[in-house]
What we know:
The chain has a single domain, classed as 2-Layer Sandwich (Beta-Lactamase). Helix content is about 40%, strand content about 20%. The protein is built from seven helices and eight strands. Strand 7 and strand 8 (about 170-175) form a beta hairpin.
Amino acid sequence: MSADSLSDYLHTQGLKLPHGDVQAARLWLETVIRMAEAEIDRSVLWYADAAGALADRLPENADNHTLLRAAYLALDALLSRYPATAAVYLLHPEHGLVRLAAQGLPLPAVFAPEQTEPLHPAVRSAQTGWLGLVDNIGLWRGWGDWPTGHDNGAQSCIALPVYGEDGRVLGVLYAEHADTQAFDAERQSAWVGLAFALLPLLQQWHHTHPPTEEHHE
């Protein structure tokens, strides 16, 4: 993506991050996706859990396998520098947010479109197109604003929408940490870099499977 696109994203999301740091993270993660030769066990990419099999939501084909491999490798690389519980979600036109890759404590495999209040930050980002940064989840729990069904005991989290130039949300990156205020500018830069590194793959998927969600303004 162009430097203008990055500037627009940072401006829209109210992020005052060094462009050079975000660009460096993006280029690093793009290189991981392009150059990494590691093969991931198919059962890891095409996981099955209590919510069902990923293959029930994404057909097992070469294009989707490429998307899953890229998401896993890029997420793994980022978390090797900044450990956390995290996931890459695809915004699916039928199933809602579908988890492509994750590491750390268990995170939902799917957030159904009909989820009700209080919304999980990942769902809120998907619906609004806005970044969600919570420095102290404990306060949200105290206010009754945190979804009890999806609680790993984390103390801070970040949810970043991934969208292209048309403003349509394609997916969400979500991470949480056991410490409060864990997502400082350095870590935010890394996550925005991942959003841009994965954007072309998510765009390609949505081009093949046109979503029905509204545009982010």
